[in-house]
Specification:
Shape: elongated
Radius of gyration: 28 Å
Oligomer: single chain
Number of strands: 0
Order of helices and strands: HHHHHHHHHHHHHHHHH
Distance between the termini: 63 Å
Largest sheet: none
Length: 358
């Protein structure tokens, strides 16, 4: 069994005869190293030299110089290339990987302007690409540098208490056990620490990154003011809340078209975003938005599932609203004393049964 190198001796040089290479090749490597070292040492004093080399590592990187990753860049740059190349386990390919990480550190515009996602999905076009974020972002391209920027945005905007499910673009990729987990649970950890958590495979980590990236994009592009609060809730929440509050003081009769447009259809749309078209269609049918409402048995037979499975999907609808709009259950009380046509009153009861069951 190979003896593990002691951490203090990870950069200790081997005898000069252990490694070598063509003099011309070594000359080129030394020239590249000196240019990168000069660019970093003479670059902005924004703390990047104190960052460990791993700060610029991306998840799909290969041939990394493992012995260097936990060392601050300043410590590494104090050593000549020949000495670095004598480190156990570090050959020419690992040195080339080392150079790539140094290039990223050079190109990093500032400690708060990460590199990882720029142009990843749209060829670098548009303001989203210049910010390093974008719709359909490649979460596999998120480095520790990018993640640190996301977490700083969450802390600066005061969003740490918010649950992931409240601000996620969609709940479909987010496991239900994370819907109520506050952003603070991850904002204080590095990606490496999150990946080391139990049950946190790459799919779950990617879903978490997507939520943080969404919050970062919204907060970093908004005109924030100390007297104003950025609202990250789904689009339907504000207009529906306003409508319900107005309805509490409106003596006019609630009609079926108004109940459909103001109440049922926005909830069905949000259900499609979070649970998919099949569940949204199921709920829409049950509310009779497209005609006569089928029974649960008829819906189960059409889908070739059990009635218990249909009820489970309706239960998922209520769970979505519990995290997306928890105050909705109480705001619906504004409709209790409302004068409504019989079909409008039936629709309100149906909405409550699916989305806000007792």
């Amino acid at each position: 069994m190979a003896r593990k190198a002691h951490p203090e001796s990870a950069l200790a040089p081997d005898p000069p005869s252990r490694k070598g290479g063509a003099p011309a090749d070594l000359y080129r490597l030394e020239g590249t190293y000196e240019r990168l070292r000069r660019a970093l040492v003479q670059g902005p004093a924004d703390g990047r030299l104190e960052r460990p080399l791993s700060f610029w590592v991306l998840p799909d990187d290969r041939r990394l110089p493992i012995a260097f990753l936990d060392r601050p860049i300043r410590v590494l740059l104090e050593r000549p290339l020949v000495e670095l190349m004598q480190t156990p386990g570090v050959g020419r390919k690992k040195i080339l990987g080392f150079f790539e990480l140094l290039r990223r550190a050079v190109k990093d515009r500032s400690a708060h302007e990460p590199f990882g996602l720029v142009g990843a999905n749209n060829g670098g076009a548009g303001p989203a690409a210049r910010r390093g974020v974008g719709v359909g972002r490649d979460t596999g391209a998120v480095s520790e540098s990018v993640w640190a920027d996301y977490c700083e945005t969450v802390r600066r905007a005061g969003f740490e208490p918010l649950p992931l499910g409240c601000v996620a673009p969609s709940l479909k990729p987010l496991p239900t056990v994370l819907w109520r987990k506050p952003l603070a649970d991850y904002a204080g950890q590095s990606l490496a620490e999150i990946r080391a958590l139990k049950t946190h495979g790459e799919k779950r980590v990617s879903a978490i990154i997507e939520v943080f990236a969404t919050v970062h994009e919204a907060a970093s592009t908004a005109a924030l003011d100390e007297h104003l609060q950025l609202d990250l809730r789904p689009h339907f929440v504000r207009p529906m809340t306003d409508w319900l509050l107005r309805r509490s003081e409106d003596p006019s009769r609630l009609t079926l078209p108004e109940a459909r447009q103001r109440l049922a259809q926005p909830l069905i749309h949000q259900t499609e975003i979070d649970l998919g078209a099949d569940v949204a269609r199921l709920a829409s049918e049950r509310l009779g938005l497209a005609g006569d409402a089928p029974s649960v048995k008829e819906q189960a037979e059409r889908l070739r599932v059990t009635r218990a499975r249909v009820y489970q999907m309706f239960d998922d609808c209520s769970r979505v609203l519990a995290v997306r709009w928890p105050e909705g259950r109480w705001l619906m009380a504004a409709l209790d004393g409302t004068d409504a046509t019989p079909d409008a009153a039936a629709l309100v009861r149906g909405v409550r049964a699916i989305f806000f069951p007792v």
